[in-house]
C-alpha cells in the first residue's frame, strides 16, 4: 500500500537536492562544510535587503526560534522549514496522512513533500512579513510611480515593485538556508536548522555582552559613589544568562533509565533513558509560534475599529475612535507605532523583555507600579498572567506533541517490542513495558513542559541575553552537537568499528 503523498512524486523529482557523500566524510571535512554554511548564514544575517530601511532590531522570541533578523536577507529565516516539518509530522502522527516511515520509498516521499511545502512557505511567509508586518521600505522605483505620502504624521507608501523585489530577496534567502541545512545534515555536523538557531542566539549574546561591558565601563568612569553598584547592575543580564545556561545544562542530564534486555540474546541488555526534558524544547517552540501568530493578528488590527456602542468617528482624538461608545479592537490588542503590543488582552499574554539599555531599578519599578497606556492594566498582572499562560500552554503542547508523534508509553512499548527488547525478569509482552513506562512518561511530560515554559518566561523577565527561549534551544543544540563530535571522534579513531556497526 502506497503513501497518501504519492501523487506528489512527479513534482518532487523536479526539486534540486544535495547529494549525500559516497563514503562517510572525515571529521575535518565535516567541520569545513559546517563552517562554510555558518559563514554564509552570518553574511545573510548582516546584509539588509535592498529596498528595506535600515533599523536596529532587538532579538525576540520570533527571531530566535526562526534564526532570523527582520529586514535582512533572512527576515523569515528557517521559519518555513520548521513550520513545514511541524505541520507534516503532526498530520502523519494524527493519521491524517498515511505514511509508513519504515518504508524507505515512503520516507523519501515524505521528506520531499516537506521540502516542497517549505519552498512554498518561503514565498508565503516573505509576503506576509513584508506586506502585513509593516517592514519599513525605501521606494527604489520612483520613475515607475512609487511614492510616499504623509497625512497627519502617518506615512502611506505606494511601492508595489519595491515590495515585490524585497519579497523575492527574502524568499530566496530562506531557500538558501533550506539547502544549507541539507549540506550540513549530509556533509557537516548535526542539523543546519539547529546550527543556525544556535548561531543567531550566540550572535545576540555576544552583541549584548559587548553593550553591557560598555554600560559598565561608562558607569565606572563616572567616579560617583554609585559607580560600582551601577556597573554591577549593568552586568546582571550576563549573570542571568549564565545562570539559565547552567540550569538548562543540568536539566539536560536529568533522566530515568529503564533497564531492558534482548529476548534472543541472554545476558545482553540496554537502558531506555527517559530524560526530564523528554519533549525537548518543542513546547516552547510551538508556544512561541502561537504567540507570533497572535502578534501578527494584533498588527493586522491596526487602523481597524469595531464600535460596540456609539458610532465610529474618523480622525477622532480619542484612543477608542468611537464617538460616545466603546471600541473593541484596542481591548483585544493595542499596537504602538513600532508594531509593539502595549495594551489589551493579547498584551497580557505577550512576552516581557527588559530593555537592554534600561536601568534595573526603573525596570522593576515599572513592573510593580506601571500601568498600560489605555486601560490602566497593572504591569504586575501582565507578568503573572504571561508566566501562567506560558506554563499552561507548554504543558498542553507537550502532551499534544507526545500523542501525535508516537512518543507515548504505548507507542514506545510497541517500538521496543519490535526491537526484541523486554523488561528483565518479565515475559516479553508490550503491555508490561507499557505499564512500566506509564509510571514515568506522562508525569515527566507535564513536569518537563512546565519547566521549560517557566524557565523561558522567567529568563525573559530577568533580561537574559538571547531570550529565555533562545537559551533553552542553544544549550540543547550544543549538548547534542558535543555528543555528535564525540561519536565522530570515536569512529575516526576506530574506523573498523564504524564498518562493523554499519
Descriptive notes:
This protein is mainly α and 502 residues long. It is 58% helix and 9% strand. Strands 4-3-9 form a 3-stranded antiparallel sheet. Helix 4 (79-93) packs across helix 5 (104-132), helix 9 (236-253) packs across helix 18 (468-493) and helix 15 packs across helix 16 (430-437). The longest helix has 30 residues, at 192-221.
Domain count: 2
- Give the topology string: H per helix, E per strand: HHHHHEEHHHHEEHEEHEEHHHHEHHHH
Low-pLDDT sequence parts: 496-502
Mean pLDDT: 80
Oligomer: single chain
Quickly list its features.
single chain; 502 residues; mainly alpha; Preprotein translocase SecY subunit; 2 domains; three-stranded antiparallel β-sheet; two-stranded antiparallel sheet; 19 helices; 9 strands; 58% helix; 9% strand; disordered C terminus
Describe the structure concisely:
It is built from 19 helices and nine strands. It is mostly helical. A hairpin with a 5-residue loop joins β7 and β8 (341-343).
Topology:
Elements: H1 9-12, H2 27-45, H3 61-65, H4 79-93, H5 104-132, E1 147-151, E2 154-158, H6 160-187, H7 192-221, H8 227-234, H9 236-253, E3 255-262, E4 269-275, H10 282-300, E5 307-312, E6 322-327, H11 328-332, E7 334-335, E8 341-343, H12 345-348, H13 360-369, H14 379-404, H15 409-418, E9 421-422, H16 430-437, H17 441-462, H18 468-493, H19 495-501
Antiparallel strand pairs: 1-2, 3-4, 3-9, 5-6, 7-8
